[in-house]
Design a protein that fits this description.
Elements lengths: L2 H14 L3 E6 L2 E6 L8 E6 L13 E5 L4 E4 L15 E2 L4 E7 L2 E7 L3 E6 L6 E2 L4 E6 L1
Parallel strand pairs: 3-8
Antiparallel strand pairs: 1-2, 4-11, 5-7, 5-10, 6-9, 7-8, 9-11
């Protein structure tokens, strides 16, 4: 195993949040370990309005996008009522949904007041960073 392979494994460990990795090859065995701070049980992400360097467009809604990669859940548990429904009034700081990433439930909260006009994803759908989750009419 060469240095390039070891560096690529170390990068993979960081991307996946692993603290240890052991690789066995014909020529021997390599074990990589790293220390990290223990993760919080739940992380709250503020879903910010769209921002870009392009000139601002006049929109009558705020687009709420996923700040992380994970699985979208509309409700806190399988049989519970969803956090929000179309037509609901939304208040700044209100929980809109949960995105599960690496077994952690991350609450997505509203950054602005408004009325929920559209839910752009389905329950249980895998979302990428930047996937539009909701549209909130101002």
């Amino acid at each position: 195993m060469n240095e390039t392979d070891i560096r690529s494994y170390a990068k993979l460990m960081q991307e996946l949040g692993l603290t240890g990795l052991e690789i066995t090859e014909n020529s021997g065995k390599v074990r990589l370990e790293r220390s990290v701070l223990p993760p919080a049980m739940e992380t709250v992400y503020a879903a910010a309005a769209e921002s870009s360097t392009a000139p601002p467009e006049k929109k009558d809604y705020v687009s709420v996008k996923s700040p992380i990669v994970g699985v979208f859940y509309a409700a806190p548990t399988e049989n519970a009522e969803p956090y929000v429904s179309i037509g609901d009034p939304i208040r700044k700081g209100q929980i809109l949904c949960v995105v599960e990433a690496m077994k952690l439930m991350n609450e997505i909260i509203a950054e602005e007041d408004g009325v929920l006009s559209e839910i752009c994803v389905t329950n249980g759908q895998v979302v990428e960073y930047g996937t539009e989750l909701f549209r909130i009419r101002r």
